[in-house]
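It is worth pausing here to work through a concrete case rather than discussing structure prediction in the abstract. The textbook approach is simple: state the sequence, then state the predicted structure, then interpret. We follow exactly that order.
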Amino acid sequence: MALPNKVKLLLDQAEQLDDYKGCMTYFYKWLNNQFSKQPVRLLIKARSEFIDTLLKKLFVQTSLSEFPQLALIGIGGYGRGELHPFSDIDFMLLTDGEPCDDLRNALEIFVTYLWDLNLDIGHSVRTHEQVLEQKSKDVHFTTSLLESRLICGNLVEFERLKSHIVKTPIWRSDDFFIAKVKEQKLRRKKCHGTAYNLEPNIKENPGGLRDLQTIFWVAKKHFHAETLEELIGHGYLTHEEYQELMECLENLWNIRFALHLAAGRCENRLLFDYQPHAAELLGFGSEGKPSVERMMKRLFRIMSRVREMNQMLLAYFEQSILPDHDAHVVTPLDAHFERIGNKIRVKDPSAFFLRENLLVLFEHIADNTDITDIDPNTIRSVRQVRRRLLGDLQDYAACRDAFMRLLKHPNGMGRAFTLMHKHGIIAAYLPQWRSIFGQMQFDLFHAYTVDEHTHKLINNIHKYRDKQLSKDFPICAEIVTRMDKPELLYLAAIFHDIAKGRGGDHSELGAVDATAFASMHKLTPSDAKLVAWLVEHHLLMSVTAQRKDINDPDVINEFASKVKNERQLDYLYCLTVADIRATNDNLWNDWKNTLLRELYLHAQRALRLGLEHPMDMRDQIRDKKAQAMERLLEIGFDEESVAQLWARFKPNYFTGFSEEQISWQSEYLLSLGEQTKSGVAVSEKPMHGGTQVFVYAPYEASLFAKLVSVIGSKKAQIQHAQVMTTKDDYVVFSFVILEVNGDAISGSRAKTLRRGLDSILIDPKKKIRLKKNRSQRFKDFNIKPKVIVRPHARDDRNLVEIQAVDIQGLLTKIAEVLQVHNLHIHAARITTVGERAEDFFVVSNEHYLALSEDEKTALHHSLMKKLNAESE
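Step two, the predicted structure:
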C-alpha cells in the first residue's frame, strides 16, 4: 500500500526533529483512521514503508551514506516488512571492518535521532565475521537473518552476507528444526500449555503468531521457501489449508493491530484493560462485557485452528528433516488403526466414513499409554471429516456406544480426552460444547475459557487415580478408588458449566442438558438423577464452605439435608475440589482445601448419625472439650486451671473453634498469667490452611476496625474472622490470614505482624495509615456495590452481606462504618473472588439485639455511601 501523498511530502520536507515528530503524529493518526477502512496487511506494510523512508532519509542526513561499505539491513518482523503501529524496529548496520571514529560518531547521531523520535529500536553494528560468530551461537539471531532485507546502503555487502549465510554449514536444517521445536515447547510452557488464557499473548500463546512464524521459518530454512504458498508445491499444504492459514494470520494481525492502538504502545498481551477498546475497534460493539466475549471467542477459535495446523505441519516437517527419527516399527491396533512410534495413524482415511471410528481412535489412545499423539496424516483426515459432518456424532448409536466406553475406560478421560478436546471431537460430539468453545468470562476469577476450564476439571478428576499425585488429595483419591461409577462424575464435570453464556441459571440449564444426555445414552433413572443433581448443585459445597460457618451444627445439618446421602456427598466433594482447582491457578490454597475437607467430614458424620438425629450443640461442645483437654494435659497444664479458664467462655466459643484451635488458644492464655490483660498470638505453622491470629483483650467496639487495619497495612489477606465476647467482658478475635499468593505467613513476617497488633493493644489511639490503591486491572470491572441486611438464625442478630470491588483497605472501611453505628461484630467471613470481594458479618446493635428497620436503613445507607466513594 502506497503511503499517503501528504505523509510523503512531510517526510520529504522534514529537516529538524520537530518536523519528523509532526510527520509521525500525522502518520499515526492516518493509520488509526484507516484501520476500519483498509485490510490490515496493507496497513502493516504501510508502516514498514514509512519506517523505510524515514531511515533512508536519516541515513543520508546523518552522513552514514558517505561510508560506502555500510549496509542498513532490516531483520525480524521489520525484515519481513511487517510492522504493527508500535512494533519494535530491528535492524543491523553491516560494515566490512571495525568502524572508524567518524563512522562511530555518525552512527551515534543516527541512533540518538531515532531515540529522540521515541521509536523502539533494536540495533547492532557488526562485521561479517561477527555476524557469522553470533550466528553459530544463537538460533534467535539466525532466525532473524533468515528474514533480513536491505533497506539502504551497500548492496554488495548485503549479498555477500546472504551468500555466507547460505554457504556456511552452521545450523543445518535438522539442528535448526530441533532448536525451533524446543523453543516452541518452552514458549508454550510459559503460557501454561494452553491457548485459552483469558489474557492471551497474541504472539507467544499456543496458536498465536509465533506458531505461524515457526512454520514459515522451518520452511524457509529447509525448503528455501519465500512464502507459505510454496509448501503446496512441496506437498505439505493443500490449497484449502493455505487459505485457512492466511485467514488466521489476517485475523491475528487485526487483533494485534487493534491491541497496539488500544494500548498506545507495543503490547502483545491482550490484557483486560485493553479488551473493551480493542473489541470496539474491531467492530464487535461498545457494550463492554458482551463485546469482549464475542471478540475473545473469535480469537480463541482462531488460535485453536493455528495450533492444530502448527502441530500437523511440524510433524510433516519432522518426517522430512529427521527421517531416521521416525523409523519405528509399525504395530497394528485393529483393522483401521496402527501405532508408529508414539503416534497413532489411520491406515486408510476412508475408515472415518464409519463415524464411530472418530471415537475408536481415542479408545486406542486410552488403551495404549505409549501413544502420546496423532500422526499428521490422521490429523488432516480428522480435520476434513470433522468439517463435513452433518449433525452431531451423538446422533449415531455406534458413536454413543463408543463414547460411553471411553467414559468408563480407566484412561479414557486422561490423554485421550485431552486430544479429543484439542482436535475438536468433543465439540463434534456434543452440540452444547460448541457453544462454550472459546467462551470467556470477563472477570478476574476465571483464568480460562469455559471449555478449557472444564477440560482442566476433568483432568483433575482423572489425576485422583495417579498414585504420585493422589497424596495431595487423599480423601478424593480414596473416594474415586471405591466409586462404583466414576463415569457419572466425569459426566457431571462435562455438563457443570455447559450452559454458561446462554442466560439464566447455568446450573439449572445444565441439569436439563445432562438429563437429556442421560436419556439419549440410556443411563438408568437413578444414574441420570445423580448426574443432574450434581450439575444443578455443583456450587453448593463451595458456597457453603466459603460463605457460612461450618463449625455451626445448624449449617452442617442444613447442608447435609440438601446432600441427602453419602454417595452424593462423595461425588460432590470430588467435583468441587477439582472445579475450584481448575478455575484459576491462584485460587486454590490450603485454606480452601481445609474448609472443604472439614465440611465433607462434618457432613459425613451428620449423615451417618442420621438427619432425623442431628448432632446436638451440647454433644459437640463436650467432644471438643474432651479432645482439647487431652492435648493440654499432655503438655503439662492441670485440669483445674483449664476448667477455670474455660468457665469464662460462652458456649459459642466452643462451637466456633476446632479442638486444635481451642487447645492452642488455651495454651497461650494460660501462659500469659493472671496479671496480663491482653495479648496476641500468631501460629508458628499453618493451622486449618492458614496462619492463625488470636487476639484477647478487654472489649472495645472499635478494636475490630483497628486490628483489620493493621493486618491490611502488612499486606496480608484475611480469609476468615471470628469475634466473640467472654462472660467477663473480654473479647476474642480470631483471624485466618494468608499472603497475597495464598501461602501461610511465617518467620519474620509473622513476628512483624504480631508486633503491629500488640502495638494497637498497648496504644489503642494509634493511627494506622492505609494508602488507597485501587488496581488499574479493576477499572473495567464496573461492579456496583451491594449491601443486604438479612435476618440471622439467631433472633438477636443480623447477617450483613457486602459485595464490592476488592480494593486495598476495603475491610477497614467497612469495619469503620460498623463502628460508627455502634454495632457489635460477632463473626465475619471474608471472601475474595477475582476482582470481587464478598464479605459477611454477623452483627447486633449496641444493646445486643437485632437491628430495627430504622437501624437497617441507616446502616445500608452508610455502607453504600462509603463503598460508592471508594469505587470511584
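Step three, interpretation. The longest helix spans residues 289-321. The first strand starts at residue 71 and ends at 74.
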